[in-house]
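Design request, C-alpha cells follow.
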C-alpha cells in the first residue's frame, strides 16, 4: 500500500516537472528566434529606412525676392532656402553683371548673397537642391527691382586682361559725388598672387570727381596676378544714390621697367628687372618750367601728337605750337611727356631747355617708346620743381605709406 502510494506521488511529481521543462524549452526557442531575427534584420532595416525616406518631407526651394516681384528694393539681398534637403547650386544673373557673390550656411540649407540688388534691374535666380532621399530639384525665379532716385558708376583702370607696369595702381573714378565713402570702399576688393600689403586711399581727381586708388606698399612684383572686384550694385553712396556695377577685373603685372631722370646730369637711366638697359641723354624743363619731381607713371603712348602750349595754359612770349611731335609717352594729364625733340638737337645731355617735358633725340625717343608701357614708373630726381601731385595722373607713390593708408575711409 505504501509502495503504491509512493509510486503515485512520484508520478505526480514527474507530471508537475514535465510542463516546467516544456516551458523552459519554449522560452529558449523564443530567445533563439529573437537572436536569429536580430542577425538577419539588415534587409528589414533598409526597408524601414526606405519607408522613412518616403514619409519624410519632400525637398523644396524658396527664393526671396519672390518670383514675379516688380518692385524689389535696391540694396536688398537675395536669399535661397531649401527645406527637406541641401542646396547644391545657386546662381544669380543680370544683364551687364560679371558676378553676383554669396555664401552657403554651414548646413547648406540657406544661401545669402553678399552682393546687393541694383536698382531698375531684371534678375534671374537658378537654384538646385537634393533631398534626403536623393531626389534632386531645381527652381528658377525672376524679379525686377524698383528704380532709384539716382545711380552712380565707377570708371576703373587698368582694363580687364591687360598687362601693366609695376607702378600701376588700381584706380576708380566716380561719376557722382560719394558721400558714404566707407560703404563704397567696402564694395571694392583687390587680391593678388603673390599676396601684397596694400590699401585704398581717397582723393579728388583733377576734374573734381571723387576717386579712390589702391596700391601696394611697394611696387608690384613682376608676374603678379591681380583681381579687382567691384561689388557696388545696390550700395547707397549717400542720399539714395545707388551703385549698379558687379565687375571682376583681372590683370597682370609685366616686367619691372623703371626709369630714373636726373635733372642735373640730364640723363634718363632705364632698367628692366634691375638690369640697366640704357642711359639716355635728355633735356628737361628749363628754369621756371622745371620738370616735376617725384614718381610719375606712364599713362599712355601716342605715335604722333600736336603740341600746342595753349592746351596746358602757356601763353605770351613762351607760347609755342610745335606741330606733330613723334614718339610721345604721357606721364601726367597736366602735360608732361617724354618725347622726341629734334629741334633741340645738340642740347641733349647738356642743357635743360624744355617747358617741363623730357626731351630726347628721335632715335632715343623711339627706343624709349618701344620699351615702356602703361604702369611703368618714371622717377625724376634733382629737380627744382615741386613733387607731382597725387592726383596728377598716378602720383600715388609720392605719398608715404602711413599717410597713404590713412586715406582709406575704413581706417
Amino acid at each position: 500500500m505504501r509502495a503504491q502510494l509512493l509510486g503515485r506521488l512520484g508520478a505526480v511529481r514527474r507530471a508537475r516537472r514535465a510542463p516546467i521543462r516544456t516551458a523552459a524549452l519554449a522560452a529558449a526557442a523564443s530567445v533563439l528566434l529573437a537572436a536569429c531575427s536580430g542577425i538577419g534584420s539588415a534587409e528589414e532595416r533598409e526597408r524601414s529606412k526606405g519607408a522613412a525616406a518616403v514619409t519624410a518631407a519632400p525637398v523644396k526651394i524658396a527664393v526671396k525676392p519672390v518670383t514675379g516681384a516688380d518692385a524689389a528694393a535696391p540694396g536688398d539681398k537675395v536669399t535661397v532656402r531649401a527645406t527637406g534637403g541641401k542646396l547644391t547650386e545657386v546662381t544669380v544673373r543680370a544683364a551687364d553683371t560679371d558676378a553676383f557673390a554669396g555664401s552657403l550656411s554651414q548646413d547648406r540649407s540657406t544661401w545669402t548673397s553678399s552682393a546687393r540688388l541694383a536698382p531698375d534691374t531684371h534678375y534671374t535666380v537658378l537654384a538646385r537642391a537634393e533631398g534626403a532621399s536623393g531626389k534632386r530639384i531645381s527652381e528658377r525665379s525672376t524679379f525686377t527691382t524698383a528704380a532709384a532716385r539716382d545711380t552712380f558708376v565707377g570708371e576703373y583702370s587698368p582694363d580687364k586682361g591687360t598687362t601693366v607696369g609695376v607702378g600701376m595702381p588700381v584706380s576708380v573714378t566716380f561719376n557722382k559725388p560719394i558721400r558714404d565713402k566707407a560703404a563704397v570702399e567696402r564694395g571694392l576688393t583687390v587680391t593678388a598672387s603673390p599676396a601684397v600689403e596694400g590699401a585704398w586711399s581717397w582723393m579728388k581727381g583733377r576734374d573734381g570727381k571723387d576717386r579712390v586708388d589702391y596700391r601696394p606698399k611697394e611696387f608690384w612684383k613682376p608676374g603678379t596676378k591681380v583681381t579687382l572686384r567691384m561689388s557696388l550694385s545696390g550700395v547707397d553712396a549717400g542720399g539714395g544714390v545707388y551703385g549698379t556695377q558687379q565687375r571682376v577685373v583681372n590683370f597682370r603685372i609685366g616686367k619691372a621697367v623703371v626709369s630714373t631722370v636726373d635733372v642735373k646730369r640730364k640723363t634718363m637711366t632705364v632698367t628692366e628687372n634691375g638690369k640697366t638697359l640704357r642711359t639716355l641723354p635728355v633735356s628737361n624743363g628749363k628754369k621756371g618750367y622745371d620738370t616735376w619731381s617725384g614718381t610719375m607713371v606712364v599713362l599712355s603712348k601716342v605715335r604722333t601728337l600736336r603740341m600746342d602750349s595753349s592746351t596746358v595754359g602757356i601763353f605770351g612770349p613762351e607760347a609755342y605750337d610745335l606741330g606733330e611731335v613723334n614718339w610721345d609717352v604721357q606721364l601726367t594729364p597736366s602735360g608732361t611727356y617724354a618725347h622726341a625733340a629734334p629741334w633741340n638737337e645738340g642740347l641733349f645731355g647738356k642743357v635743360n631747355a624744355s617747358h617741363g617735358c623730357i626731351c630726347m633725340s628721335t632715335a632715343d625717343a623711339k627706343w624709349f617708346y618701344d620699351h615702356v608701357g602703361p604702369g611703368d614708373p618714371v622717377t625724376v630726381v634733382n629737380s627744382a620743381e615741386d613733387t607731382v601731385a597725387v592726383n596728377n595722373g598716378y602720383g600715388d607713390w609720392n605719398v608715404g605709406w602711413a599717410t597713404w593708408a590713412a586715406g582709406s575711409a575704413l581706417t
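Comment from the thread starter after seeing the answer: thanks! The chain is about 20% helix and 35% strand.
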